[in-house]
TrEMBL record:
GO molecular-function term, one example from the UniProt record: deaminase activity
Species assigned in the record: Sphingomonas palmae
Name of a matching Pfam family: Ribonuc_L-PSP
Protein's name in the database: Enamine deaminase RidA, house cleaning of reactive enamine intermediates, YjgF/YER057c/UK114 family
Cellular-component GO terms for this entry: cytosol
Domain of life from the UniProt record: Bacteria
Residue ranges crossing the lipid bilayer per the database entry: none
Length: 135
């Protein structure tokens, strides 16, 4: 089996190890990022929805940056939302701060009943540059 080429953002490795998953894995020129929620460094949730969504994007950007990427390199996005109708307007408001200009990545939104105490999660796949694809 090939060893996974894992990407960790600065300062959060212990949190990922505690929860037994990798924040992102490089493979075949792509970066596969685990779903990111609005958790603080200690794993607790931001108390307000807008802050929670913003923190999820900040956590995502930290992983992308650690891999030499930006949101502009993202080609596919999956959003998971508890109570989609109740939170979608807030999500779109915050998303616009991070999304960038067209052309936009593909997007799938999924309504869920539980996200480990969170309201929002974002999972992406990004294209690595040739240099970053080698790790």
């Amino acid at each position: 089996m090939t060893k996974r080429d894992v990407v960790f953002p600065p300062g959060r490795q212990a949190l990922y190890e505690q929860n037994r998953y990798s924040p992102a894995v490089r493979a075949n020129g792509m970066l596969f990022v685990s779903g990111q929620v609005g958790s603080r460094e200690d794993g607790s949730r931001e108390p307000e929805l807008e802050s929670e969504v913003r923190r999820a994007f900040e956590n995502l950007n930290a992983i992308l940056s650690a891999a030499g990427c930006t949101f502009d390199d993202v080609v596919d996005v999956t959003l998971f939302l508890v109570d989609p109708e109740g939170i979608i307007d807030t999500v779109w408001k915050v998303l616009a701060e991070f999304w960038g200009d067209a052309p936009h990545p593909t997007l799938t939104g999924v309504g869920v009943t539980w996200l480990y105490g969170f309201n929002f999660e974002i999972k992406v796949v990004a294209q690595l540059s040739k240099e970053d694809a080698r790790g």
